[in-house]
Amino acid sequence: MSNVIDILDLSVEDIDGLINVACDIIENPDKYAEKCKRKKLATLFFEPSTRTRLSFEAAMYELGGNVIGFSDSNNSSAAKGESVADTVRTVSCYADIIAMRHPKEGAPLVASMATNTPIINAGDGGHNHPTQTLADLLTIYREKGSFNNLTVGLCGDLKFGRTVHSLINALSRYAGVKFVLISPEELKLPDYVTNNVLIKNNIPYTVTTDLSEAMPQLDILYMTRVQRERFFNEQDYIRLKDSYILTPEKLISAKEDLAIMHPLPRVNEISCAVDNDKRACYFKQALYGKYMRMALILKLLEVE
Ligand code: CP
After folding, report:
1. What is the pLDDT of residue 242?
2. pLDDT tens-digit readout, 271-290
3. Cβ neighbours of residue 283 under 8 Å, at least 6 residues apart?
4. Number of the ligand 1 atom closest to the C-alpha atom of 48
5. Residues in contact with ligand 1 (CB, 6 Å cut-off)
6. Residue 242 contacts residue 219 (beta carbons within 8 Å)
7. Which residue spans of the chain are classified as CATH 3.40.50.1370?
């Protein structure tokens, strides 16, 4: 494996290995401080980001490597009309590994076909976000100790929320996982995910618009932002944006050991009053993203 475009590019064994390395990095950071000396990561972000780009960059620095790249493609030659393929061919002359975010679904796949330099999909349109899923999986592992037999509620924008699509793909490979899909009708999970992942693999799932009704059964509640940037019509966004707002009152019926997750950024989906609840995991999730990206960089660069 030389690229990670989709979470399914990583086997269950690969993910176990990445989690083991990430946990070791957490315990023994000094052991890893020079593992990527003289290596360069390029971060090519054609879309805004805080967590993904900065955690990739922090990951490479903590491995002793260096970082080049852009966070605004208007300052790159993409603004002059350069193709993704030509951009990565060029950047491959300067970097050992590339993390790319792009608003167009499939752009990182196109990039991976243009170069032998490892490409990591850092989010492509409303499609996939595999390294967010790595962060999510480490969070679940450290909170729950296992991926098996979990009831996972996914709430909010399941249509455009690329982190949800990757997470469903990843968790569907574990025994006894059930999904509760909580969204307005207009933001329901795309049929291609329901059909090709849930139905095809006989994964149990229920669909509801009612978060409160779903709450008592959940082991994981994964809240998501309504993805304003994917809407064609601002009025639709305004109508749907506050469909779900998690408050302490809504958590009264939740399990004591519920894990409340969110890939962030949040807008209004989780009240700040929930942040001090011991079940809130979303800032830990952001931290764990850095460790999993460190583990992934080591794997793709084949560093022992
Ligand atoms: N979770 C996530 O992808 O956050 P950013 O958009 O800030 O990178």
Report:
1. 82
2. 999 999 999 999 999 999 99
3. 264, 275
4. 6
5. 49-52, 123, 132, 263-265
6. no
7. 7-128+289-300, 131-285
The low-confidence residues of the chain, meaning pLDDT below 50, are none
Residue nearest ligand 1's atom 4 by CA: 51
Please spell the DSSP secondary structure of 249-261, one letter per residue. Answer: GGGTTS-TT-EEE
Q: Which CATH superfamily is domain 131-285 in?
A: Aspartate/ornithine carbamoyltransferase (3.40.50.1370)
Q: Strand 205-208 vs strand 178-182: parallel, antiparallel, or unpaired? A: parallel
Ligand 1 centroid from CA 56, angstroms: 11
Measured in Å, residue 263 CA sits from the centre of ligand 1 at 7
CA 122 to centroid of ligand 1, rounded, Å: 9
Instruction: List the residue whose alpha carbon is closest to atom 5 of ligand 1.
Output: 49
CATH code for the structural domain at 7-128+289-300: 3.40.50.1370
- Report how far ligand 1's centroid is from the alpha carbon of 50 (Å): 6
pLDDT tens profile 79-114: 999 999 999 999 999 999 999 999 999 999 999 999
What is the pLDDT, as a whole number, of residue 146?
96
User: Ligand 1 center to residue 142 CA distance, Å?
Assistant: 21
- The CB density around residue 213, as the number of other CB atoms within 10 Å, is 12
In this prediction the pTM is 0.96
